[in-house]
Design a protein that fits this description.
The strands form 2 sheets. The protein has a 5-stranded parallel beta sheet. A 5-stranded mixed beta barrel has the order 6-7-8-10-9. About 5% of the residues have low confidence. It is elongated, with a radius of gyration of 34 Å. The protein has 15 helices and 10 strands. The protein has 4 domains: 123 residues, no CATH class; 37 residues, no CATH class; 124 residues, 5'-nuclease (Rossmann fold), CATH 3.40.50; 68 residues, Beta Barrel (OB fold (Dihydrolipoamide Acetyltransferase, E2P)). It is an alpha/beta fold. Helix 13 links the parallel strand 4 and strand 5. The longest helix has 30 residues.
Length: 384
């Protein structure tokens, strides 16, 4: 129903422009009547009516296609552009116009119709290539501008200090003077819930940015017919509510969308490239795809593994054996931080809490794994 309503509103808004375009084309068609009088055996009034109606019909159909719809597409594209990309496009157009204008000077000495057509073509070509090149190198332009502004600030500070007789100092780098840096949140890390606890600690100081397409994906998951997916979606919405209430880092919802792609993960990577900013996630596939496209990724699982206590061979641990291992006689237990401990001959003390000695620590993609054994009687006596 909403789509039909939008279509009706668009058609109503286009109607006045269609009529205006129809009348203009009707006048043009009627003005062309004298050229057809010599080739037509019909009375002049018939030619005027036929060409006028034909022009009105053409204007009624083509006016929105060449006016409203291109402008609507351009407006939608501009609304999704990042500031750096928009600046690159504007600079590209200006540089293309300048280069095309200079190149059209020697073209003006060519004979007709080349001197009329080629200058316009040169302006279009130079503008296109300038926008294309600057859009692909917008990050380099941004870094050059930051370096230039930082150098200007340092020179002004040094000159003011020398004039006042005080000690000179250097301004901080441009990266440290950015007024606002952001981190994009992925759906998986919101549903995971640990971001709420991390934000309370104060380690995250950058603005946490949540796009509306991530909110829509969470809502779709929460409205799912599958009970598990529905509970995960509702948990994600609850985590967002807690984030807004307890987070020490600022939380913002952005309407910026990326219309070129459809799924949420691709939109997130494209948006991170446009801003540019890192993505906070615990999705392995998204992590790999983002890294391949040059996007910085902050993985919550990597953070969890990094803050776990480091154990060295020979250290003592207290662990409860709760299940059987892969190898014969092995027992498996877990520490308070979730680290898995594989104990040799651990099946002998199943469901018992016992002291063990670390023999090896293995770091895997799934996390940290500790191998241990029970102490001998002599080692137990020495430790007691």
């Amino acid at each position: 129903m909403s789509e039909n309503k939008q279509i009706e509103e668009k058609s109503v808004s286009e109607l006045p422009l269609r009529l205006l375009g129809g009348f203009v084309c009707m006048l043009i068609g009627a003005s062309l009547t004298p050229r057809f009088l010599l080739q037509s055996s019909q009375p002049p009034i018939i030619n005027v009516i036929v060409l006028g109606l034909l022009g009105f019909l053409v204007g009624l159909i083509l006016t929105p296609i060449v006016t409203i719809r291109p402008l609507r597409l351009v407006r939608k594209r501009l609304s999704t552009m990042s500031p750096s990309q928009l600046a690159a496009v504007i600079m590209g157009i200006l540089m293309g116009l300048l280069a095309g204008g200079l190149f059209s000077i020697p073209l003006a000495f060519l004979p007709d119709p080349l001197r009329t057509i080629l200058p316009l073509i040169s302006v279009i070509v130079f503008s296109y290539f300038s926008v294309f090149i600057l859009s692909n190198r917008q990050d380099d332009l941004s870094n050059m501008w930051k370096s230039f502004t930082a150098t200007s600030v340092q020179r002004s500070v040094i000159s003011e200090s020398s004039e006042s007789g005080g000690e000179s100092y250097l301004a901080p780098p441009a990266e440290e003077t950015d007024s606002k840096r952001v981190i994009l949140l992925d759906t998986s890390v919101i549903i995971d819930g640990r971001i709420s606890d991390i934000s309370k600690t104060g380690f995250l100081r950058d603005t946490i940015l949540i796009p509306t397409f991530i909110l829509r994906e969470l809502q779709n998951i929460a409205d799912s017919s599958d009970a598990i997916r529905r509970n995960r979606g509702r948990r994600g919405l609850e985590v967002l509510g807690m984030l807004q209430q307890t987070s020490l880092a600022p939380i913002e919802i952005t309407e910026i969308d990326v219309s070129e792609v459809r799924d949420a993960d691709s939109k997130l990577v494209a948006l991170a490239r446009q801003i540019p900013c890192p993505i906070l996630t615990n999705d392995y596939n998204l992590n790999r795809v983002a890294e391949l496209q040059g996007v910085n990724v902050l993985n919550v699982n990597d953070l969890a593994n990094a803050v776990k206590v480091a154990y060295l061979p020979g250290e003592d641990l207290i662990v409860k054996i709760i299940q059987e291992g892969r190898e014969v006689g092995q027992g498996i237990g877990y520490l308070e931080d979730g680290t898995m401990v594989v104990v040799e001959e651990g099946m002998e003390r199943m469901h018992k809490t016992s002291p063990v000695i670390v023999t090896k620590v293995l770091q895997t993609s799934a996390g940290r794994m500790v191998f241990a054994r029970f102490p001998t009687e002599n080692e137990q006596e020495m430790r007691n």
